Amino acid sequence: RMTAAVAQPASALHLPRNRDGPDTRLLNRASRLSAVATAVGAIDLKQVAATYQQEAGCSGLEAATVAAAAVGAALK
């Protein structure tokens, strides 16, 4: 005959979160992500590419690639 065992949480990781108040950790993360999105949105890729093209004397495609790489590096 089999008996069902009542599962006990092994650690605090298995306990449900208290959802009564705001989750400050998630709010802080959302705030940081919003700040990054604002900063990236403010970057003028055309201007970055044009400046690089003028200073390096390279093609427009190479300048656009460098500008895109700069934005990618800023996001990391």
Automatic annotation (TrEMBL):
Residues 1-25 are annotated as: Disordered. This is Uncharacterized protein.
